[in-house]
Amino acid sequence: MPIENIIFYAFLGLTGLSALFILLSKNILYSAFALIATFIGMAGIFVLLGAEFVAITQILVYVGGVLILMVFGIMLTNRLSQAKVETEVYNKFFGILISAGLFYILAKAIEMADFANMGWMKNTPSAPSSVSDLGMKIMTDYVLVFEVIGILLLLALIGAVRIAGNTREEGTDAA
Amino acid sequence: MQVIQERRELMPLNTVLLLGAALFCIGLAVVVTRKNAIAVLIGIELMLNATNLNLVAFSRFDAVELQGQVFALFVITVAAAEAAVALAIVIKVYQHFQTANLDKINELKG
Q1: What residues in B contact A5, CB-CB < 8 Å?
Q2: Residues A91 and A56 in one domain
Q3: Which residues of chain B have a CB within 8 Å of the CB of A115?
């Protein structure tokens, strides 16, 4: 078995197992840390799939940003005197049943569609992509979307600060 | 061309797609079964990432246009914005109701 293949399955196992841990653990903090492991495993799979820039963005944005936000959120929404930050679990039977059923349908569909052996996929003339290709694409073909997404991010951050910030002096509108 | 063909056989597409489906379903189960708002957010992030995995997996067959990778980047950006706004709302709700349990937040009148 080539070394690349072993690394791929190692990242696959890391991602799958830590995702399962999120499902099985009741502790929110442990779930957040398992989510970090899931994202790192996914970043490894992205690198092996030839999407290096997406992998780096994944680590920067998720592990460095979103997860820190989540841990802060856990800290601010639980009484810290409590020993454990646990969440209640309900709808256990039907929740698992529905998602297992959905997984069965999706797996069946993937198996039946057999994308890898479709003619247009086998015959696509493709060259290995590079980060500079991706940068050229974003700055030429997708530049409008790029600007719009920047504005969306700015608006979302201003909105988040406005919502979470202290609004007591401004009257009772947001209390 | 030969190298790409080898890489495709090393990382079979179906395995990646199955992992994406599994992550999406685990995320769905987390969203449905948890009562804490932040645990639900964790499930949503997992579902968004599962879609990214599919986009990147198909982008490998489209190395000239790179649409899948570009779209995955935009999904990551929107997910980050969503997480920021959602956590701000959760913190504000906690300050008002003194709980982050979604079942106990059932009043519309503020």
Answers
A1: 10-11
A2: yes
A3: 13-14, 17, 58
CA distance B97 to chain A (A): 11
Domains of chain B: 2-97 (1.10.287.3510)
> What is the pTM (predicted TM-score) of this model?
0.87
Put simply, the answer to whether B17 touches A115 (Cβ < 8 Å) is: yes
Kindly report the CATH number assigned to the domain that includes residue A133: 1.20.120.1200
* B56 with A91: Cβ contact below 8 A: no
C-alpha A41/C-alpha A15 separation (Å) is 5
Nearest to A29 by CA among A65, A88, A64, A72: A72
Q: Are the beta carbons of A133 and B66 separated by less than 8 Å?
A: yes
* Residue pLDDT, tens place only, B79-97: 999 999 999 999 888 888 8
Q: Residue A129 belongs to what domain range?
A: 3-141
ipTM of predicted assembly, 2 dp: 0.86
B26/A149 CB distance under 8 A: no
Q: What's the confidence (pLDDT) of residue B100?
A: 80
Distance in Å, alpha carbon of A109 to nearest chain B alpha carbon: 10
The count of structural domains within chain A is 2
Mark whether A129 and A47 lie in a shared domain. Answer: yes
Type of residue numbered A71: V
B56-72 pLDDT, tens digit each = 988 877 767 788 899 99
- Judgement on whether residues A90 and A121 belong to the same structural domain of the protein: yes
> What residues in A contact B11, CB-CB < 8 Å?
4-5, 8, 48-49
Query: Long-range CB contacts (< 8 A, 24+ apart) of A106-112?
Result: A106/B21, A106/B24, A106/B25, A107/B18, A107/B21, A110/B14, A110/B17, A110/B18, A110/B21, A111/B14
